[in-house]
Design goal:
The structure is a homodimer of 253-residue chains. The first copy, chain A, is of the alpha+beta class and 253 residues long. Chain A folds into 2 domains: 2-95, Pseudouridine synthase I, catalytic domain, N-terminal subdomain (Alpha-Beta Plaits, 2-Layer Sandwich); 107-252, Pseudouridine synthase I, catalytic domain, C-terminal subdomain (Alpha-Beta Plaits, 2-Layer Sandwich), CATH 3.30.70. Helices cover 18% and strands 30% of the residues of chain A. Chain A has helices at residues 27-39, 75-80, 137-142, 204-216, 224-231, and strands spanning 2-10, 46-47, 56-66, 87-95, 107-115, 129-130, 149-152, 167-179, 188-197, 246-252. In chain A, strands 1, 2, 3, 4, 5, 6, 7, 8, 9 and 10 form a 10-stranded mixed sheet that branches. Chain A is globular, with a radius of gyration of 19 Å. The two termini of chain A are 22 Å apart. Chain A binds chain B through residues 7, 9-11, 56, 58-59, 76-77, 80, 85-91, 118-125, 127, 182-185, and chain B through 7, 9-11, 56, 58-59, 76-77, 80, 85-91, 118-125, 127, 182-185.
């Protein structure tokens, strides 16, 4: 028995999220199907964490136990030729049998991308949320530091969740502005919110992004973020931002 | 009557090229259909040049004559809401009635992108040609300068063409290497061939790219490029590189 760990990327547009579910196309299903095609085995693919329907991954980490003797350096090519073109395995390595890609994850980074130019970027249209009206970037930046550290993030968690402990630690939350000559108008064409933490509640980054957008629009003050956090009440926060803007960026072990 | 000029971008993946043709979905058809939905008029959309099936445009220039009185600043939004999501108008301006986006074009730049990392970049999979084996970038670069200036480019033109004069002037031909952390392996993950000229023959950039790839693979010497150019014989050049890697980058007037 061997435990294999992979870094994979996927375009989540066509999928009902990572986790297998009945009558839906999912990343996990496609991965397990590819392993089955390759080895004949029925494995259970574990990931660093589920991603929702429409959410993408630049570098998701997965692992599974296999009895296959295929050399580790052949696995990515073998899987990629059995996976749809919107899921790609990039690296493979053999790890101790005890390794579990979710339980062992120390830090995860998500990126939420906001296209701020007047019109969408046609080549990124499925990977960013289009917000063509003015955003106060400074106000958005001022709202972020209060989220750093260990907090109960109940306000930023969907009420549809079974996780009882809502305490998580955020190590970083920053908003980067990109200038892109595709915008043709000059100025900021894209904002990227990078959030790094020891773990995330269900919809947590999307609710933070939705709240931050309201602050950028001037519907809320920067200082509201702290008040929302302290309220521990989902109804105080902003809406859940669109899944298409979210990408699992990096997982650290 | 007014002449309106637009900069548009499109993802060519789903289209049989720019130009209208029977029983095929084309960019021109979609543009003319959008104008018809907006104004009721049947216009003829002129572009800076046709792009082939599967070829993309970052900044194509088009124009058409309309009797509509819709203010110019409203046109992009109005068209975009009537266009499929893979075609986007970015800028609009009113130009003299005599302006013709193909005849007036002074310089056009195309970009051909080669993904050189071991595996595809899932988010750019439709916009670059994947070539995972070694390429000699220096040899490729040495082959380019001989193309600059005014030449008969018959060797780099498909035999299926009706253009009799095959003389064109290239102003620039450069190969840029990109490092992308998506490759996860370090090193060059992407090569971009930018070619600027006063005009291009049918398939010209794709045949130059196909020949350049053979030079990078060591199947031909850098000096072959000059010999191929001088032969004025399509059969001497390399294959036509895949359309998906090509993008109309810029048109200058």
């Amino acid at each position: 028995m061997r435990n294999l760990r992979f870094t994979i990327s996927y375009d989540g547009t066509a999928y009902s999220g990572f986790q297998i579910q009945p009558n839906a196309d999912t990343i996990q299903y496609r991965l397990e199907q590819a392993v089955h095609m390759l080895t004949g085995e029925t494995v259970k693919v574990v990931s660093s964490g589920r991603t929702d329907a429409g959410v993408h991954a630049k570098a998701q980490v997965i692992n599974f136990i296999t009895t296959s003797k295929i050399p580790v350096e052949r696995w990515c090519l073998a899987l990629n030729s059995r996976l749809p073109k919107d899921i790609v395995a990039h690296t493979a390595e053999e790890v101790p049998l005890s390794f579990h890609s979710r339980k062992a994850a120390k830090r995860k980074t998500y990126c939420f991308t906001i296209r701020t130019a007047r019109f969408p970027d046609v080549f990124h249209r499925n990977y960013e949320y289009h917000h063509p009206t003015h955003l106060n970037v400074e106000a958005m930046r001022e709202a972020l530091p209060c989220l750093l550290g260990e907090h109960d993030f109940t306000s930023f968690c969907t009420v549809r969740t079974d996780k009882e402990v809502k305490v998580r630690t955020l190590y970083e939350a920053r908003l980067e502005a990109e200038i892109d000559d595709l915008s043709l108008n000059g100025g900021i064409s894209r904002l990227r919110l990078y959030v790094t933490g020891n773990g995330f509640l269900y919809n947590m980054v999307r609710i933070i992004a939705g709240t931050l957008l309201q602050i950028g629009e001037g519907k809320r003050a920067s200082s509201d973020m702290q008040r929302i956090l302290e309220a521990q009440d989902r109804s105080k926060a902003g809406p859940t931002a669109e899944a298409m803007g979210l990408m699992l960026w990096k997982v650290e072990y």
